[in-house]
Amino acid sequence: MTTDVLIDFLIHLWPITLLPIAVIVPIMIPRTNGHSFKAPQSYPYKKRNLLTKNEYPFFMQLRDACEDEKLYLLTKVRLEDLCYTTSKSHTQKYRGYINSRHVDFVICDKKMNVLAAVELDDPSHNAKESKKTDAFKDNLFKTIGIPLYRIKTNSKNKYKQDIKELLAVIQKIK
Known about the structure:
Order of helices and strands: HHEHEEHEH
C-alpha cells in the first residue's frame, strides 16, 4: 500500500510540491535585468594613441608649464568624472549627456582640485555637430563653476602665449 500512496501523491499533488520550488529558485538566482555582461567571441580592436597629432605638441608645452607651476595636467577626462546630475527624475537622461564625452585637458592643484579645463579646437570644431557639442560643454562648465578655456590649434604648434595667459588666470583662481 505504501507504493500506492506514493504514486497517488506524485500523480495528484505534484503541483503543490513544485510550487514552492518554482517560487524560491528564481528568487535565489541573481537578477541581471537583461544586461548580463558576455565577453565577445572575437576582439576587433586596435590600439591607438591617446593624443591626436594636434593635441600632442600642445600637451608637451602645457605639461612643462604646469610642472613649473606645480600643477598636474590630466588628459581626456570624462565629463562625468568632473560632475554629476542633480536631477532626481531624469538621472539617466542627463547622465547620457556627460558619460561618453570628455574634455581634452584638466589642470589640477597638488591636492587634485580641478582648477580649469582646456579644449583644443582644431578645424573639426567648425562642423555643425561639433559646434552643438562645444556649446553644451561651454554651458556645462559655466553651470558647474569650472573655467573652460578654448585654444585654437595652429600650424606652427606654438602655444606659449596661450599657455601663459591660461596659467595667469589659473594663478588668480588658486
